[in-house]
Every structure is written in C-alpha cells, then in structure tokens.
C-alpha cells in the first residue's frame, strides 16, 4: 500500500523544526521534603524507605500543608505506608499545625483499619486538637466500624 506524499502545508512543521535554534535543556530539582511528601501521598513504599534509610528527610517535619508525613499517609488511607513510617520512627502522637494527631485524621476521614492500628500501638484517644476535639468526636455517625471501635455504637438486641 502506498501513501500519498505530504502536501506543502503539511511539510511546514518539519521545515520549521529544522530551522529553529536548539533550546537549552532545563531541569527542575525539588527539595527532598517535597519529593518525599509526594511519595507518601502516592504510597510509593520502596522510595519512601530509600529516602528514610538515606537520611534525606526528617519524619517530624511539618510540611507547607501543615502536616507531617504520618498525617499525609493517614489521609491517603494507606495502612502499609503508615506502618512503614512508624517502623522508621514516625511518632503516632505527632501533631499537625492544628493539633490533630494521626488518630484524629483516621477518625475524621473514616479509616477504621488505620485507627485500629494506631490504637494497637498506644495512640491516645483522649488527646484533643486545638478545637478541643478528641478523635472520637470526629467520627461520622454512619461509620459503624469506627463507632464500634471507640465503644460508641449502641447495639439494640
């Protein structure tokens, strides 16, 4: 099968490419904290581990988002990521800029599997954030699993 040759108009792009001056290559470098935070948000466990082992980040850093890495991991709903950060020394009682602990976030965002894990490690359910809210105060009324975990579910027999 034979294709038609390009018309003069179609060839304009290719002639333009050859006559343009070559552009210099630019590269963008982001600070380690920004890259690490992105890895946490996306649950890239292998890269997170490499960053931590290479001591390229501090797990207690509060990012521009107002949160530390463990808060970001909780908000992503990724238990494996939370566990990895804790294994490497992330503080389960770390507070963000509004006084929220990871347990506050797990309750607020409806992640009973993460809340259960944090509680099993001794996360304090009585800690209050800056608005005097305990983690259980932030549980949505329809989240039966979290309500049961905190002993707030009334079961009618």
CATH superfamily annotation:
Ankyrin repeat-containing domain
Can you summarize the main beta sheet? none
- State the helical fraction: 40-55%
Q: What is the averaged pLDDT score?
A: 85
Total count of strands: 0
Judging by the overall fold, what is the CATH architecture? Alpha Horseshoe
Number of helices: 8
Keywords: ANK repeat
ANK repeats: 65-97, 98-130
Protein name: Protein phosphatase 1, regulatory subunit 27b
GO molecular function: phosphatase binding
Q: What is shown here, in short?
A:
With 157 residues, the protein is mainly α.
Explain what the structure shows.
The chain is an all-alpha fold and 157 residues long. The protein has a single domain (31-150), classed as Ankyrin repeat-containing domain (Serine Threonine Protein Phosphatase 5, Tetratricopeptide repeat). It has helices spanning 11-19, 32-41, 45-53, 69-76, 79-87, 102-108, 112-120, 144-149. The protein starts with 10 loop residues before the first helix and ends in an 8-residue tail after the last helix. The relative contact order is 0.09.
